[in-house]
Design goal:
single chain, alpha/beta, Rossmann fold, 2 domains, two-stranded antiparallel ribbon, 10 helices
Length: about 325
């Protein structure tokens, strides 16, 4: 009798264990399917930019489509080359949008900024709109700790859809520049840039550099500015990042440090947090020893905190599913 009872209990435990294992597999499968997708192509070509755009499944449409990128500071050779992006920009009938800078350089005013954009070849492939040419507007920052508003060029309100086309690389203050930086500092007007850089202390571009807060506050301020943009644009946006010319310095530096590691590829997502995290993961997981310089730049400036706080604000997920297209 005891042997029969023991056998029955063993059968029950086996069935229960199998049931739990199946339930865990189903839960894991369900969780995986709900993660944002980040698409990846290793070869950086015009054709692959279009291929990865089409993989996203969200068409850039509307009367006015913006393509947000950096035109690059005069003297900097690392910005996304017009020959690379031309086909994509023209296919979506995009206008390249930018904001004037808040630091001393050749892009502090519209006339000089357009001249740099022309010298770098952007005006030859599309219209270029320096959005604060006719003033600025304020977008609310809901739930922010540092910023009440995000101050952007007035023309930003004219666009129905935005393609965020970022050059992923390092940055001397943010640690790295990717999708989130492109829509925060990148879209802000000069006053808006000063407001973000100071953690909400000033809008004055002449005094901001004496009021720079701790790295973590700057990272949080950028995330809050990103939230204002995302709240405004909704799902009328997509994000593509090209990880090439991986200098520790951004395209805003006129004489950037030479890249110490090789190009990684093209990444794209509908989730900017997942996209930036995927690019950073690709750097960290690279077998290229030169990655140590970019990793040091990211970590020394607390760059990961930007993603942590952006995730807290509901802007996206640091967990993602990587989909390789080649």
């Amino acid at each position: 009798m005891n042997k029969i009872f023991t056998a029955l209990m063993a059968s029950v435990l086996m069935l229960t264990g199998a049931g739990c294992a199946n339930a865990q597999k189903q839960a894991s499968k369900k969780e995986g399917s709900s993660l944002p997708k980040v698409y990846f192509i290793k070869d950086i070509t015009s054709e692959n930019l279009i291929k990865i755009y089409e993989a996203l499944g969200r068409k850039a449409e509307g009367k006015n489509v913006a393509v947000k990128l950096s035109t690059g500071e005069a003297g900097n050779p690392n910005y996304l080359q017009p020959a690379l992006i031309k086909d994509l920009v023209q296919m979506v009938k995009g206008t390249i949008i930018e904001g004037n800078t808040a630091y001393g350089g050749k892009r502090t005013n519209v006339a000089d900024h357009i001249k740099v954009a022309e010298e770098h070849g952007f005006t030859a492939i599309a219209d270029v709109d320096i959005m604060d040419a006719d003033g600025q507007v304020e977008l609310p920052v809901n739930g922010g700790k540092h910023l009440k508003v995000d101050i952007v060029g007035k023309d930003f309100l004219n666009y129905d859809f935005m393609v965020v086309l970022s050059h992923f690389k390092g940055h001397p203050m943010a640690g790295f520049g990717g999708a989130l930086k492109n829509i925060s500092i990148g879209i802000a007007s000069p006053e808006g840039k000063a407001y973000i850089h100071s953690g909400g202390k000033t809008r004055n571009v002449t005094e901001v550099w004496n009021m720079i807060p701790a790295d973590t506050i700057f990272q949080e301020s950028m995330a809050e500015a990103s939230k204002a943009i995302i709240d405004h644009i909704g799902d009328r946006v997509l994000y593509i990042s090209v990880a090439n010319n991986l200098s520790v310095d951004c395209d805003c530096v006129s004489t950037p440090a030479d890249p110490q590691m090789g190009d990684l590829g093209i990444f794209a997502s509908l989730d900017p947090v997942a996209l930036d995290r995927a690019c950073i993961d690709a750097v960290r997981n690279s077998s290229d020893h030169g990655k140590i310089h970019l990793i040091e730049r990211i970590d020394s400036k607390h760059g990961m905190h930007n993603l942590e706080y952006a995730e807290q604000l509901g802007l996206g997920s640091q967990k993602y599913e990587l989909v390789k297209l080649d």
